[in-house]
Amino acid sequence: MRRTTLLAAALILAGTNAYAQTEFPSRPITMIVPFAAGGPTDTVGRLIAEPMTRMLGQQVLVENVGGAGGTLGAARVAKADPDGHTILLYHIGQATSVSLYRKLPYDPAKDFTPVGRVTDVPMTLVARPTMEAASAGDLLGYITKNKEDVTLVNAGVGSASHLCGMVLMKALGVPMTTIPYKGTAPAMTDLIGGRVDVMCDQSTNTSGQIKSGNIKAYGVTVNKRLGSLPDLPTLAESGLDGFEVSIWHGIWAPKGTPAAAVSKLEAALQAALKDPNVVKRFADLGTEPVPLDQATPAALDSHLKAEIERWKPIVQAAGVFAD
């Protein structure tokens, strides 16, 4: 009789566990964007949150946790309960933080469960509206001639604009006076106001300002022109060979998140990347969703590890570190 009771209890427990797994998500999901609201990564997050909400049956809420180049928000997700209800949308900084920060409180390759890549965003080289240079070649010549008198702004150490600026200075072999801001918005405000000279930032942030004439655009950092900005040449067309930078984004959950939850998050991400509104809005911003075979945990895991190795020598050569 006792064996029968124990067996029945075990079957009930197993059934309860199986049911609990099918319950995900049981409440709204918080998508941590580790940058200020209104920035390019925030834009990506808010575009995919709505179709992911429809697929998951629970609201995906974007929460901005800025600071320390994105590492504060990432650290929060690394320490969150691994139940799938807290996820991280981060960009290439997830790879470069390993080299940029001496005391990183987590391991990007070990303390997260990958869900999938989202998009690869081209960068654009832009300048204040009063910049004298008429073409990208003129601007590169202006930078080379004036060197440290040129102010190069970014959204903070570890931001996409900071990384692009480092690559630009390395490609030109010219130092500029770099000015880090606390977010993309104040940096763009000062660029529009003509108080600073140059910025290299994601097309998701600059396209609208370029189209409205608020800033001058000189080139894109990928090897083909953007459909949303067809008249803007690539930097390679302007003679800056070998300069190719795009800012990829991915979604992670905390380490130990159950496979069933990760699978549902992956399916929701893929559904979002096929959503017609997302595809259109991404195109308007000069980007596009990654192929679906890249929106997987395995593809993101492999890509992150390769990018960590790629950026190590670039960051070390620049000699830029943060505590």
Comma- or semicolon-separated keywords:
44% helix, D-Maltodextrin-Binding Protein, domain 2, 323 residues, alpha/beta, 9-stranded mixed beta sheet, 11 helices, globular
Question: Helices, strands, pairings?
Answer:
Layout: H1 2-22, E1 29-33, H2 40-56, E2 60-64, H3 71-78, E3 86-91, H4 93-100, E4 112-127, H5 136-146, E5 151-154, H6 160-172, E6 177-180, H7 184-192, E7 198-202, H8 203-211, E8 216-220, E9 246-254, H9 259-274, H10 276-284, H11 297-318
Parallel strand pairs: 1-2, 1-3, 5-6, 5-7
Antiparallel strand pairs: 3-9, 4-7, 4-8, 4-9
Helix pairs in contact: 2-9, 2-10, 4-11
Your description of this structure?
InterPro entries: BUG (IPR005064), Bug_dom1 (IPR042100). With 323 residues, this protein is α/β, with parallel strands linked by helices. The chain folds into 2 domains: 16-121 and 247-318, 3-Layer(aba) Sandwich (D-Maltodextrin-Binding Protein, domain 2), CATH 3.40.190.150; 122-220, Periplasmic binding protein-like II (D-Maltodextrin-Binding Protein, domain 2, 3-Layer(aba) Sandwich), CATH 3.40.190.10. Helices cover 44% and strands 18% of the residues. The protein has helices at residues 2-22, 40-56, 71-78, 93-100, 136-146, 160-172, 184-192, 203-211, 259-274, 276-284, 297-318, and strands spanning 29-33, 60-64, 86-91, 112-127, 151-154, 177-180, 198-202, 216-220, 246-254. Strands 1, 2, 3, 4, 5, 6, 7, 8 and 9 form a 9-stranded mixed beta sheet that branches. Helix 2 packs across helix 9 (259-274) and helix 2 packs antiparallel against helix 10. The longest helix has 22 residues, at 297-318. It is globular and about 60 Å long. The termini are far apart. Residues 6-12 and 14-21 have low confidence and may be disordered.
